[in-house]
Amino acid sequence: MSVPDKQELIELFEYARPRVIQSMELRHCPHAGFYNPVDDRCNFCHQGLECIWMNQNDELVDLEQKSLEELKQQLLIAVDFVDSSLSPHHLSRRKCQCDNCNWLRKVQETLARLP
Fold first, then answer.
1. I need a surface site. Which of 22, 24, 48, 106 has the fewest CB within 10 A?
2. Please, which domain of life does this record's source organism belong to (predicted)?
């Protein structure tokens, strides 16, 4: 199998982004989901990691400028996020064919091909 290129990794973000955004409660966010590291409300917010991830990986960020290692690390965070949102009946993910499990397998297979 060939080593994945940047574009192949970047395409995997297309599935994770909406999942992260949909999980966020932005109704009372004074920054509309844009993480502000100098605001204590952001530093102590229960959605801090999601906001940080989105601000580093949303559609406005040029992921092409990131290294393969940076993309890998950001995808691993997305994997943890999607994985943590699965219900207990997903214990046998190898057999499950839902979108989340299919994406998780695809990311695993892609990252396994990295050197």
1. 22
2. Bacteria
CB 3 within 8 A of CB 114: yes
Torsion of CA 106, 111, 13, 61, to 10 degrees: -170
* 19 Cβ contact list (under 8 Å, min separation 6): 78, 81, 82, 85, 100
Q: Is the dihedral of CA 14, 20, 24, 26 positive or negative?
A: negative
Contact 76, 83 (CB under 8 A): no
- Residues 109, 91, 114, CA angle at the centre, nearest 5°? 15
Per residue in 1-22, pLDDT (tens digit) is 688 899 999 999 999 999 998 8
pTM metric for this prediction: 0.86
